[in-house]
C-alpha cells in the first residue's frame, strides 16, 4: 500500500524555478506567474458546459484573464486580493492575454511562492492535482524513510547510487532537474536490477548442472532424411547453435527468433528429438489450442513414420487423462499442448527438452513452471516477434539469442493493399479469383459477433453472408466454438475442403496452410501492428504469391500510420521498430503480459547503460549467492519475489 502510493510517480514536473513577471508574458509562452486576484465572476451557465469562472489577475499595470470551466468551487479560492501562482500556456483572447485552466496555487498571507519543480500526478477520477500534491508532500518523505533500502550498502557505494528513500522523495519533489535525474537513475537501476535478478533466479544459465541431450542422433538423422526439403542456410546456422547447447551438460536457455514462415517448427522438432534420442521426454507448448493441435498434427506427420507417438494435451477431458498417464509413466516421449501442460496434474518421468512456441504470449513465470517439471531441462523458446535488442535483454534476461536469417526458397512477398470500406469489393473479387483457381482465403474479423457497443465486423455475420456466394465453401472459426468443431473446421481447411475461412484472430499465430493465398482483414484499424504482421504471415507460404487486404475506415491518425506501415514495410523487424515509435516501448510486444511488472520510470530504449550495469551486477551477485540465501540478503530476496508475484509456485526456485 505504502509502496503503491510512493510509486505513483509524477507524470512530469512544472518548472517553477523561474517566475515570469506578468508584464513579460507573451502568447505562445508556457509560463508561471505570481499575481493578485482583481476580480472573479462566476457565470452559472446552466446546461452542459457548466458554470464558468472568469478571473482577472494583475501585477502593476499588467493584466491576465483566467478561465476555469466546471469549477464553481474555485470561486472560494479566487477571492479579490488573494495572491496566486498560475502556470500554463498563454494565449491571446480578444485583446487580452489569457490562460485557460492553468495549474494554480493560492499563496497564504506573506507566503513566498513555492519554487523548484512541482510534481504533476497522473490523476483520474476527479482527484485534484493540488490535493494530491499536498497529500504527497505531507506523506512521501516519512513513508520513504520507513522503507528499508533493498540494495546492499557496498553495492550502492560502489555505484554511487543515493539511498532509495532520498531517491523516492526527490523523484516527487526535486529541487532541480539535476537532482531529479539522479533520483530517477537510482530508481531505474532498481527496476532493472529487480527484474534481472528475478529472471536470472528463475533460469539463469549455469545456475545448476543440467543434462546432455543427443542432437543429431539416429532419430534426428532419419527425420532429416525423410524431410521433403533441405534446411535453409539460416536454419542450419541457428540449429548448430542450438545443437551445441543441447549437447552440453548444462541447461540450455535459448530464444530462437525467426520471421513468420521462416521454418522454426523444423528446428523445434530437431530439438525435441534430441531429448528422445537421449532416452528422455520432450514437450512443446503453444499459446492456443488451434496452434497446439496444428503443431501436433505436423509433428505426427513427420514423426509417426519414424515410429514415434505424439501426445496432445489441450484440455481436461478423458483423452487428456490418458495422455497424462502415458506421460507420467514415460510411455509417451513427446507431448504437445497448451497451458494445460502447466497444470499440477501433469508430470513427466524424465523431461529433457522444453520448447515454447510463440513465446511472446507467455510470461516468465509460465516458462519456469514448465521447466520446473524436469530436472533442469533444456529450454528453447521461439518467437516470430522481432524484438529490438534492448527489449530482448530486458524481457528475456539471460536467454541466449539465435536468429533464423532468411526464408525458405521460393517465397514471394505478399502484396499488401489498404482499402477503405467503400472499396471492400475489390478484396472479395480477388478472393473469388483465387478460389476459382483452387486457392484458399482467410477473412479475419475483430469480433466473433457484431455488437452495437463495439466497432468492427463480426465473423458470424460475415460468414453467413459469404456462405450465400455460389461456389464458395465457407468455414467459420472462433474461440467460442467447441474444440471438436474447431478441429474439424481447421482440418477441412487444411485439406482444401473449405475455400474461405472466416475467423477471429484465432488464426493469428503459426497456422500454416500453404495453399491459402489471400488474407482479408476486416476493420484492420482495430488490430495492432504485430498482429497485422502475424496475420499477413498466414499467406505467401506456398509457391503462389500472396495478397493481403486491409479494410479500414478509421480516421485516427495512429491507425492510418499503422496501416501505412503495413503497406510500406515487409520486414518484421522494421515493423517492430515502427510500432515502438508509434506506441512507445511499454505497450509494444506485450511486455505487460510478461509476468513482471512493467517499468515505471525506466525507458528501455534510452536507459540501456543502466540496464547493462544492473544485469552485470545481478549476475555477479548470483554467482556469489545463487539463491540470495544469505541472511543479509533476505530483504533483497523478498523484494525480488514480490516482483515475480505471490502466485509463484514454490517449486520454481529450486
Ligand atoms: P514459422 O517459423 O512461422 O513457425 P513454419 O515452421 O510453420 O514457420 O514453416 C513454414 C512453412 O515452411 C512450413 O510449411 C514448413 O514446412 C516450410 N519449411 C520449413 N523449412 C523449410 C525449408 N528449409 N524449405 C522449404 N520449406 C520449409
Ligand atoms: Mg510457427
Automatic annotation (TrEMBL):
One Pfam family for this entry, by name? RecG_wedge
User: What InterPro entries does the database record attribute to this sequence?
Assistant: DEAD/DEAH_box_helicase_dom, Helicase_ATP-bd, Helicase_C-like, NA-bd_OB-fold, P-loop_NTPase, RecG/Mfd, RecG_dom3_C, RecG_wedge
Q: Tell me which residues make up the Helicase C-terminal domain.
A: 423-581
Residue span, Helicase ATP-binding domain = 245-404
The record's listing under PROSITE patterns reads:
HELICASE_ATP_BIND_1, HELICASE_CTER
What's a GO biological-process term for it? DNA repair
Keywords of this entry: ATP-binding, DNA damage, DNA repair, DNA-binding, Helicase, Hydrolase, Nucleotide-binding
Protein's name according to its UniProt entry: Probable DNA 3'-5' helicase RecG
GN (gene name): recG
Amino acid at each position: 500500500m505504502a509502496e503503491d502510493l510512493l510509486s505513483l510517480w509524477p507524470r512530469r514536473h512544472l518548472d517553477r524555478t523561474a517566475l515570469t513577471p506578468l508584464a513579460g508574458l507573451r502568447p505562445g509562452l508556457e509560463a508561471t506567474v505570481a499575481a493578485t486576484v482583481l476580480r472573479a465572476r462566476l457565470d452559472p451557465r446552466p446546461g452542459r458546459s457548466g458554470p464558468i469562472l472568469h478571473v482577472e489577475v494583475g501585477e502593476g499595470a499588467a493584466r491576465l484573464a483566467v478561465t476555469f470551466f466546471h469549477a464553481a468551487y474555485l470561486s472560494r479560492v479566487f477571492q479579490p486580493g488573494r495572491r496566486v501562482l498560475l502556470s500554463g500556456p498563454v494565449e491571446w483572447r480578444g485583446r487580452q492575454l489569457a490562460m485557460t485552466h492553468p495549474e494554480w496555487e493560492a499563496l497564504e498571507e506573506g507566503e513566498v511562492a513555492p519554487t523548484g519543480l512541482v510534481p504533476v500526478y497522473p490523476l483520474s477520477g476527479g482527484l485534484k492535482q493540488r490535493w494530491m500534491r499536498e497529500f504527497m508532500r505531507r506523506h512521501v518523505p516519512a513513508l520513504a524513510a520507513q522503507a528499508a533500502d533493498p540494495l546492499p550498502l557496498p553495492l550502492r557505494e560502489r555505484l554511487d547510487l543515493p539511498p532509495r528513500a532520498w531517491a523516492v522523495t526527490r523523484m516527487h519533489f526535486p529541487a532541480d532537474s539535476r537532482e531529479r535525474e539522479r533520483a530517477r537513475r537510482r530508481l531505474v537501476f532498481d527496476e532493472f536490477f529487480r527484474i534481472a535478478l528475478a529472471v536470472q533466479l528463475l533460469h539463469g544459465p549455469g545456475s545448476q548442472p543440467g543434462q546432455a541431450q543427443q542432437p543429431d542422433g539416429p532419430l534426428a538423422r532419419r527425420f532429416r532424411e525423410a524431410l521433403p526439403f533441405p534446411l535453409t542456410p539460416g536454419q542450419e546456422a541457428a540449429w548448430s547453435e542450438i545443437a551445441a547447447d543441447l549437447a552440453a551438460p548444462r541447461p540450455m536457455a535459448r530464444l530462437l527468433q525467426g520471421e513468420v514462415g521462416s521454418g522454426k517448427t523444423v528446428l523445434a522438432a530437431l530439438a525435441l528429438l534430441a531429448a528422445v534420442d537421449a532416452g528422455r521426454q520432450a514437450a512443446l507448448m503453444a499459446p492456443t489450442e488451434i496452434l497446439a493441435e496444428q503443431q501436433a498434427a505436423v509433428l505426427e506427420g513427420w514423426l509417426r513414420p519414424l515410429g514415434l507417438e505424439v501426445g496432445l494435451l489441450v484440455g481436461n477431458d478423458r483423452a487428456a487423462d490418458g495422455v497424462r498417464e502415458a506421460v507420467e509413466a514415460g510411455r509417451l516421449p513427446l507431448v504437445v499442448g497448451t497451458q494445460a501442460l502447466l497444470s499440477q496434474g501433469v508430470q513427466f518421468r524424465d523431461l529433457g527438452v522444453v520448447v515454447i512456441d510463440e513465446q511472446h504470449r507467455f510470461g516468465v513465470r509460465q516458462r519456469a513452471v514448465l521447466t520446473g517439471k524436469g530436472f533442469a531441462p533444456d529450454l528453447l523458446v521461439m518467437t516470430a516477434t522481432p524484438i529490438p535488442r534492448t527489449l530482448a535483454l530486458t524481457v528475456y534476461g539471460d536467454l541466449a539469442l539465435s536468429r533464423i536469417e532468411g526464408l525458405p526458397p521460393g517465397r514471394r512477398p505478399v502484396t499488401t493493399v489498404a482499402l477503405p470500406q467503400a472499396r471492400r469489393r475489390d478484396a472479395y473479387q480477388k478472393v473469388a479469383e483465387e478460389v476459382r483457381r483452387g486457392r484458399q482465403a482467410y477473412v479475419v474479423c475483430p469480433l466473433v459477433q457484431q455488437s452495437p457497443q463495439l466497432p468492427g465486423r463480426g465473423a458470424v455475420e460475415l460468414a453467413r453472408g459469404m456462405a450465400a456466394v455460389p461456389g464458395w465453401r465457407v468455414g467459420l472459426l472462433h474461440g467460442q466454438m467447441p474444440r471438436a468443431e474447431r478441429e474439424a473446421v481447421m482440418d477441412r481447411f487444411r485439406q482444401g475442403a473449405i475455400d474461405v475461412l472466416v475467423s477471429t484472430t484465432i488464426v493469428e499465430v503459426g497456422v500454416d496452410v500453404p495453399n491459402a493465398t489471400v488474407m482479408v482483414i476486416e476493420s484492420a484499424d482495430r488490430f495492432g501492428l504485430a498482429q497485422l504482421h502475424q496475420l499477413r504471415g498466414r499467406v505467401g507460404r506456398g509457391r503462389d504469391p500472396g495478397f493481403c487486404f486491409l479494410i479500414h475506415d478509421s480516421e485516427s491518425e495512429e491507425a492510418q500510420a499503422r496501416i501505412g506501415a503495413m503497406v510500406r514495410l515487409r520486414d518484421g523487424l522494421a515493423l517492430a521498430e515502427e510500432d515502438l515509435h508509434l506506441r512507445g516501448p511499454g505497450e509494444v510486444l506485450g511486455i505487460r503480459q510478461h509476468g513482471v511488472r512493467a517499468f515505471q520510470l525506466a525507458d528501455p530504449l534510452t536507459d540501456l547503460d543502466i540496464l547493462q550495469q544492473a544485469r552485470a551486477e545481478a549476475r555477479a551477485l548470483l554467482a556469489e549467492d545463487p539463491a540470495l540465501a544469505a541472511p543479509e540478503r533476505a530483504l533483497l530476496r523478498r523484494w525480488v519475489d514480490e516482483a515475480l508475484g505471490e502466485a509463484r509456485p514454490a517449486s520454481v526456485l529450486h
